[in-house]
Design a protein that fits this description.
With 402 residues, the chain is mainly alpha-helical. The chain has 14 helices and no strands.
């Protein structure tokens, strides 16, 4: 209750510029606010809201809040800075509270003007799984109720995309592949030679050669430390490292970060190898899927052609059946016609035979008639014949029996 009341009072004080400056400049004040992130639920949320406001203030607000989280890491024995903040985001009871924590994360990442510093802080969050968590949160959104959380998710994604583009574009002026070690070394060697710094560059390379990063864990840590130091120099740009409060390098924090990275380097290397294998496997799967799709398309075309052939075959079968029926009908008609013709032929043959007989009779009658006419003509020209003799007297009747 007392801590909650204290946080409410601080919120009231921060309602004006004088109170805001007082809280920000109070000795250990921001660090104590950060330690409230290990309190109970209401106090944690209030502390996150106040830290967000302080982080967005100019003139050292962001530096004081990041320093407070570095102090929190040491006090609470965190493995990584900000891991408690990401854990609270993951375990929040509702999306309203998650919006509060994500607002603080966005302020920590996006407030610095320098893209290298923003990328460095974003990298810290990414190494403790923030990207995967935010992806899961986006998939679970229920709009329009979670609109505020969606806005913070959009801010994170858009700023990250913009910074990634700026980091890529910084090498656009170079007309060689900065990811190719040989081309990069030749270009850097030329640049060093033009500046007259060959001896310094050579000494750096000789010292790096002595680190032997692949031989021992110590060599790996020192090599990563050298890389980190060069990165910090790039982040500081024209500023003088360590000469102002805002540009102090926490060497202990740097060593702890490098130690963690050295322990994770073998796993990271294995992960990269697995990612390469996974990419290769995905390409093979994509190729197989394309082949499968083409085969499936071919099969569908073959099925369509088979269906079309079946339809044609069915039509031909129907036409054949119709033609067969017509042929059967015509065959029956032809058979009937043939029978009729046979009957008529028989009748014709019978008639012909009868005509033959009649002709024969006519010819016979003609012959007889001619014979009669000849006889008549002969009779007309011959003398009359003698009268026939008188018939003989009939014989006497026989005597009666006695």
């Amino acid at each position: 209750m007392l801590q909650e009341a204290t946080l409410d009072c601080i919120r009231v004080l921060m309602g004006n510029k004088v109170g805001l400056d007082g809280v920000m400049n109070a000795d250990g004040g921001v660090r104590k606010l950060a330690l409230c992130m290990d309190s109970f639920f209401p106090e944690r949320t209030r502390a996150a809201e106040l830290l967000t406001v302080l982080c967005l203030q100019d003139h050292g607000g962001h530096r004081r809040v990041t320093d407070a989280f570095t102090h929190y890491k040491a006090r609470k024995k965190e493995q990584r800075r900000f891991e408690t903040l990401v854990k609270l985001l993951r375990l929040s009871p509702n999306n309203e509270v998650r919006t509060t924590y994500l607002s603080l994360i966005n302020a920590l990442i996006n407030k610095p003007n320098d893209v290298d510093l923003r990328d460095a802080i974003r990298g810290e969050f990414r190494r403790i799984g923030l990207d995967d968590l935010l992806k899961a949160l986006r998939e679970s959104l229920e709009l329009p109720r979670d609109r505020d959380l969606e806005i913070q998710l959009d801010v994170y994604d858009e700023e990250a995309e913009g910074d990634d583009k700026d980091l890529r574009d910084r090498y656009a002026e170079f007309n060689f592949n900065v990811d190719n070690l040989g081309e990069l070394f030749r270009a850097l060697s030329d640049k060093i030679q033009n500046a007259g710094l060959q001896s310094s560059f050579l000494a750096m390379l000789q010292h790096l050669l002595l680190l032997s990063p692949g031989d021992t864990e110590h060599g790996m840590r020192t090599f990563l430390l050298a890389c980190r130091m060069v990165r910090l120099i790039c982040i500081q740009k024209e500023e003088k490292i360590g000469t102002s409060e805002d540009n102090q390098v926490d060497f202990k924090e740097l060593l702890e970060t490098v130690d963690t990275e050295a322990k994770e380097a073998p796993l990271k290397r294995k992960t990269e190898e697995l990612e390469v294998d996974l990419t290769s496997a995905n390409k093979r799967v994509e190729t197989l899927e394309i082949d499968l799709a083409e085969r499936d398309k071919s099969l569908r075309q073959m099925d369509a052609e088979i269906a079309e052939l079946k339809a044609k075959l069915a039509k031909l079968s129907g036409d054949l059946g119709t033609a067969s029926a017509e042929l059967l009908s015509k065959s029956a008609a032809l058979q009937q016609t043939s029978s009729d013709l046979q009957a008529k032929n028989a009748m014709l043959e019978s008639t012909s035979a009868e005509l033959g007989r009649t002709k024969t009779d006519l010819e016979k009658s003609k012959s007889e008639l001619e014979a009669l006419e000849a006889m008549r003509a002969s009779a007309a020209s011959a003398p009359p014949p003698a009268p026939p003799p008188a018939p003989a007297a009939p014989p006497p009747p026989p005597p009666p029996p006695g």
